[in-house]
Amino acid sequence: MQKISVRSALSADQVGNQVKLEGWVRTRRDSKAGFSFIELNDGSCMGNIQVVADGNLANYESEVKKLSPGCSVRVLGEIVASQGKGQTTEVQASEVHVYGWADVETYPLQKKRHTMEKLREWAHLRTRTNTFGAVFRVRNCVSRSIHNFFQERGFLYVHTPIITASDCEGAGEMFKVTTLDLEAPPKADGKVDYTQDFFERPSFLTVSGQLEGEIFATSLGNVYTFGPTFRAENSNTSRHLAEFWMVEPEMAFVDLEGNMQVAEDFIKRIISDVLNDCGEDLQFFNDRIDDTVLSTLTSMADSEFLRVSYTDAIDILLKSGQKFDYKVEWGTDLQSEHERFLTEVHFKRPVILHDYPRSIKPFYMRCNEDGKTVRAMDVLAPKVGEIIGGSQREERLDVLEQRMQEQGLNPADYWWYLELRKYGTIPHSGFGLGLERILQFITGMGNIRDVIPFPRTPGSAEF
Ligand code: ATP
Ligand code: MN
Question: Which of 81, 100, 119 is the last residue before a domain boundary?
Answer without folding.
Answer: 100
